[in-house]
Amino acid sequence: MSLFETVAVALWAMLPAYVPNNAAVLAGGGRPIDGGRTWRGRRLLGDGKTWRGTAVGVLAGAALAGVLNAVGPAVSSALGVDLPTFPLAAGFALAAGAMLGDIAASFLKRRTGRERGAAFPGLDQLDFVVFALLLTFLSAPEWFGSVFTLEVLAVVVVVTPLLHVGTNAIAYALGLKDEPW
């Protein structure tokens, strides 16, 4: 696979994981997942992790996988790249894993004394990727193995932080986020 093909497959395969956190920001608000509970004097997650945002994020990512399946043949033909289709389990796992990763990162941030919105370099950019890939591996192992080759995984690890920083800067500039990271 050429570098162009590898990058195209990596971005395409990760789109259902890239979208959920952005959708959650747009739909945010509502009841916090932790219900205001604390542990060792700190909130478990904080007000930024809500049931509504999580549900909308998972649904948006899973729905995007369905849309990508519908447009995939045309996009594959236009790009000259064999893009993967998403089994239902993989599309859902990528989206749900992304949201779980963000929730886990919030928990770790609270445990390390960071407040909501505080930067945690590395974790902020890859938390959702690790959980999305893990949940997808567990839910659709054959599909995972055929799509996420070592080369594709390397592209995901390199490109995701760049995309994350860029989209967060745009969301901040648009007033959708309180901090640019």
Secondary structure blueprint with pairings:
Elements: H1 3-27, E1 38-39, E2 42-43, H2 51-79, H3 88-111, H4 123-139, H5 141-147, H6 150-173
Antiparallel strand pairs: 1-2
Helix pairs in contact: 1-2, 1-3, 1-6, 2-3, 3-4, 4-5, 4-6
What gross morphology would you assign? elongated
Give the distance, in angstroms, between the N- and C-terminal Cα atoms. Answer: 33 Å
Instruction: Give the beta-strand count.
Output: 2
| N-to-C order of helices and strands | HEEHHHHH
| Proportion of beta-strand residues | under 5%
Average pLDDT number? 90
The percent range for helix content is 55-70%
Summed up:
The protein has six helices and two strands, in the order αββααααα.
In words, what does this structure look like?
This protein is an all-alpha fold and 181 residues long. It has one domain. 70% of the residues lie in helices and 2% in strands. It is built from 6 helices and 2 strands; from the N terminus they run H-E-E-H-H-H-H-H. The protein has helices at residues 3-27, 51-79, 88-111, 123-139, 141-147, 150-173; strands spanning 38-39, 42-43. A two-stranded antiparallel ribbon has the order 1-2. Strand 1 (38-39) and strand 2 form a beta hairpin. Helix 1 packs antiparallel against helix 2 (51-79), helix 2 (51-79) crosses helix 3 (88-111) and helix 3 packs antiparallel against helix 4. The protein is elongated. The two termini are 33 Å apart. The relative contact order is 0.16. The model has no long low-confidence stretch (mean pLDDT 90).
